[in-house]
Amino acid sequence: MILTSEQTGCSIGKANVRNFTLVEIMMVCLVIAILMGIGLGVYSGAMSAGKRAKTQATIKKLEVTLENLKTKYGVYPQTTDTTDPYFYLDGLTREIGTGSSSKYGMGLRNMTDYDLDFKKGIDYESIKSAATKDMGSGKGGLVLVDAWGNPLIYICPGIHNKNSFDIISRGSDGRYGDNGTGPDLTASPQKANNEGQGDDLTNFNGSN
């Protein structure tokens, strides 16, 4: 004897489906939003840590290269620009002066061997593609930058490292320290301010 679906009370080919309530849908959306927020926070933190590590590596590489050259040649590249004291990657042998073009030089005139050794030590082609910004031919050309794209500050003689040089990255916010007040390079002698505080990265004590 064959029973029909009407006799058994079972529905063939039809599933018993319960629709989600509005509250349940909202709860699912809330959980997804929370998970996305956590993921974005972790990603942002990892990106920030990566950029700080890259900037610290650039500063250290420049520092080690210049110290090696100081041992060999007895001199560091110099700076006189009190407005934009950047490190000009192709400007080591340009004369320092007060003119519109010469102020972007780093004072090692005729020291072509120094320039060649610097480019070998710094791994010129690699750092040129990864950590430079072109300021234009009228403003000194390529300058070294941090991982946020902001030019590294190079001061020699240093304010903090008085017998060598200071290198400063102004961090993710592009400002000196916590309040944006940088070194006073027009004073005599030059004076330190808030640089090296907050999220700044430097080659002297006081950076995080």
Secondary structure elements and pairings:
Layout: H1 5-8, H2 22-73, H3 112-121, H4 124-130, E1 132-134, E2 142-144, E3 153-155, E4 166-169, E5 201-202
Helix pairs in contact: 2-3
Helical residues, percent:
25-40%
Number of domains: 1
Multimeric organization: single chain
Unreliable spans = none
Residue-averaged pLDDT, rounded? 85
Which structural class best describes the helix and strand composition?
mainly alpha
Q: How many runs of DSSP E, i.e. beta strands?
A: 5
- Order of strands in the sheet with the most strands? 3-4-5
* Main beta sheet: 3 strands, antiparallel
Task: Walk me through what this model shows.
It is a single chain. The protein has 208 residues and is mainly alpha-helical. The protein contains four helices and five strands. It has a three-stranded antiparallel beta sheet, with helices on one face. The chain has a two-stranded antiparallel ribbon with strand order 1-2. Helix 2 packs antiparallel against helix 3 (112-121). The longest helix is centred in the first third of the chain and has 52 residues, at 22-73. The N and C termini lie far apart (85 Å).
